[in-house]
Write a structure and sequence with these properties.
alpha+beta; five-stranded mixed β-sheet; 25 helices
């Protein structure tokens, strides 16, 4: 089973070399690639090639194995191995002479990363990045690992030793190499067969008891003292948090436990070094149990998911452990950080969107900061007591050092630590921090800053659209909803071309492969969420087009798959069987996200076929809910929405204060999976006699006196409409239960 979130928890290994030393025209070929990670390796003496038929064809022509290296731009250990091995001329010469080296950005090609991560875990028992995999020229893996050092270490050979051993096996024991590759591919095919989802037939209804049991299982792995689940390293459990918040919104014997777990985790993360206490935004994970030492890269997908989780906690009302006011502050600072630091101002413009005019979001900020030519992990974010004293003076400097756990013995280096309160601040401490924070932020802005990976990933921007749209509504920040709309427009304009959603763009141009299932699902969810907040049918219709295209692309033969066979080599590596990953990783699984998108679309459109399809995907849940709920958070969250109905709300009547008040009350509701349709043009179709674009609105009209009202429905069957906020909230509470 693939780990729920491998992250960068351990040094992983891998870089791919392309043999080109032996013949002309085989030099490093990465300079023109859209991926910042690939371009980081364009000056290596290794003759890297991008992943594709040309590189594998070259390996077949030369009859040499492929060395595949997978990483990403913000990865600290990727930088380490690059410096130690891929910038070394002697190592590069050996690679070039005996292998074809291929470099892959896991964020650009998650299909490649997923299959070779599974192979690496099967072969070596570990996983991480950089990932180092040795392949036959048709793409089947036969040996792999993660980070390999330049010199042998206890329990880990040097990279050169590995290269020499693989070369010797390829030349002297080819039959055994081929046998191992074929055995692994067959095993991976069997794994894919076990995870197959058939989309025909009537699915069983969601079992409420199964969801309560999942909460009990999660409680057994919770860390009630430090928040989160398990020990170190600790990752933000974003999909699980969404499930817990939804479960807490519905009366059950496990609702309080779900609320308590979610509150403890959200509180612990936002009060820790995982959260940038100066500028907002969350790091990828913590290497310590108490979240005090982060791994410093900041990813769009983490922050978009966590923004939504904090907004939903605000909507739920918080609890004594973590108030909705604290959560609103963390959400506000995260949203503002996303726009200021990851926002891209427009196609072809690599500048930040600090003006608030971001039109799309970059992928990440690096874990490292380059200082005097050296990659130093987290250097931008670390402080010593002496620095705090120098900036804040004798009165505030030592006090802030104590408050933020910055001591003479550093936690990341021997002298420096990140800012880490680790608890709720009291009134006097808040005043101290409010004085100190702007001065420290100004000082930090003068330091070298981490690099940004400016590629735009469709699915992650879809996550951002959903999060920002809801944040704007719940936090009273229409500028955030406007940012979501600009990003949606960018995705429509740049990524949605001729009925295909492209996964990646750079500098305003779509490049590379078509989107994967997760890209389609995240974008559909984002556009449907944006429609529910704004009432602009443009976003509903775009979501509908993309969802219908996804059904054709990933479920045409009645079996759901993650990819549309973008690569014959990946297909070969998994035994020539298309794959489906049911488990969440750093983001929700494509299958789980697609189930959620189908459920929301069915609620708005009345499509029973898409509701059935969602139910069939949820059939993956029963064996996972109690065996591995930490890896099935989004399936659980979607199941909670399905169990609630989900409740469908049609807001109709004249566009004015009364309708806006009813609409806003719905947007503040914590009802699991609630979908909202808002009539445009006072509910009058654009053409007289034509049905509204959103079927949920069909036949729903203003009250007899012409005033606004809300129809609450399940399966398009509606109760008596309500016209006051008080009655709306009362009815919602009853229906959610």
């Amino acid at each position: 089973m693939k780990a729920a979130d491998n992250g960068n928890a351990r040094p992983g290994a891998g870089n791919a070399a392309d043999n080109g030393n032996a013949r002309p025209g085989a030099a490093n070929a990465l300079a023109g690639e859209p991926s910042a990670y690939l371009r980081q390796h364009a000056s290596n003496p290794v003759h890297w090639r991008p992943f594709g038929d040309e590189a594998f064809g070259f390996a077949a022509q030369r009859d040499v194995p492929v060395f595949l290296s997978i990483g990403y731009a913000a990865c600290h250990w990727c930088h380490v191995m690059a410096h130690e091995s891929f910038e070394d001329q002697e190592t590069a010469d050996f690679l070039n002479a005996n292998f074809v080296a291929i470099k892959v950005d896991r964020e650009e090609r998650p299909d490649v990363d997923a299959v070779y991560m599974a192979a690496t875990q099967a072969i070596s028992g570990e996983g991480g990045w950089p990932m180092s995999v040795f392949l036959t020229p048709d793409g089947r893996a036969f040996h792999s690992g993660t980070y390999f050092p330049p010199r042998p270490m206890p329990g880990r050979p040097s990279f050169r030793q590995v290269l020499e051993a693989v070369r010797e096996a390829w030349l002297e024991r080819r039959e055994a190499v081929e046998h191992n590759a074929e055995t692994l591919a067959r095993g991976m095919a069997e794994t894919q067969l076990a995870a197959a989802v058939q989309l025909a037939g009537s699915p069983d209804p969601v079992d409420a008891g199964l969801l309560s049991e999942a909460v009990r299982v999660l409680a057994r792995s919770e860390d009630p003292h430090d928040g989160g689940f398990g020990t170190a390293p600790k990752f933000p459990p974003s999909p699980v948090l969404e499930f817990l918040v939804r479960h807490a919104a519905v009366a059950s014997d496990t609702a309080d436990a779900a609320r308590d777990m979610a509150g403890r985790t959200l509180a612990a993360m936002s009060r820790s070094a995982l959260f940038d206490q100066l500028d907002g935004g969350f790091a990828r994970y913590s290497v310590t149990r108490d979240w005090s030492v982060p791994h410093f890269e900041k990813m769009l997908y983490d922050n978009a998911q966590l923004l939504r989780a904090f907004v939903h906690w605000v909507r739920l009302g918080g609890n004594a452990v973590y108030t909705s006011e604290e959560a609103a502050d963390a959400a506000t600072r995260t949203a503002d950080w996303m726009i200021a630091s990851l926002g891209l101002a427009g196609p072809g413009d690599g500048t930040g969107g600090g003006s608030g005019r971001a039109e799309a979001f970059a992928s990440s900020l690096d874990a490292d900061t380059v200082v005097d030519g050296q990659h130093l992990e987290g250097a931008s974010y670390l402080w010593t007591p002496a620095e705090l004293l120098d900036i804040l003076g004798l009165e505030d400097g030592p006090a802030v050092a104590r408050l933020m756990n910055v001591a003479s013995g550093g936690t990341v280096t021997k002298a420096a630590s990140p800012l880490h309160p680790g608890r709720r601040l009291d009134g006097a401490e808040h005043l101290l921090w409010d004085r100190a924070r702007p001065r420290l932020l100004a000082a930090r802005s003068g330091r070298p800053q981490p690099a940004r990976d400016d590629k735009v990933v469709a699915g992650w921007n879809g996550l951002a659209v959903a999060a920002l749209a809801e944040a704007g509504a719940v936090l009273g920040r229409p500028d955030l909803t406007a940012a979501a709309a600009r990003t949606a427009a960018y995705l429509e304009r740049i990524h949605w071309t001729d009925g295909t959603l492209m996964r990646v763009s750079h500098a305003g141009l779509a490049r590379g492969i078509g989107g994967l299932l997760e890209d389609y699902a995240f974008c559909v969810d984002g556009f449907l969420t944006l429609y529910g907040v704004t009432g602009n049918t443009r976003w509903y219709l775009l979501a509908e087009d993309i969802l219908l295209a996804a059904c054709l692309r990933f479920a045409a033969d009645g079996t759901l798959v993650d990819t549309a066979r973008e690569s014959s080599q990946v297909f070969n590596a998994q035994g020539q069987r298309a794959g489906l990953e049911p488990f969440d990783n750093a983001t929700p699984s494509g299958a789980a996200a697609f189930a959620g998108a189908l459920l929301s679309y069915a609620a708005l459109s009345g499509s029973s076929d898409h509701r059935i399809m969602a139910g069939n995907i949820l059939s993956l849940l029963p064996p996972l809910a109690t065996r591995a709920p930490r890896a099935a958070g989004w399936l659980l969250a979607t199941a909670q929405a399905a169990l609630a109905g989900p409740v469908e709300a049609a807001v109709v009547g004249p566009d004015g204060p009364a309708r806006a008040e009813l609409h806003h009350a719905l947007l503040l509701s914590a009802s699991p999976g609630l979908v909202v349709a808002v009539a445009s043009d006072a509910g009058i179709p654009a053409a007289v006699g034509a049905a509204p674009a959103v079927p949920l609105l069909d036949g729903r009209t203003a009250a007899p006196d012409g005033s606004a009202q809300v129809f609450l429905c399940r399966g398009m069957v509606c109760e008596r409409p309500v016209g006051s906020v008080a009655e709306l909230l009362e009815r919602l509470a009853t229906m959610a239960g």
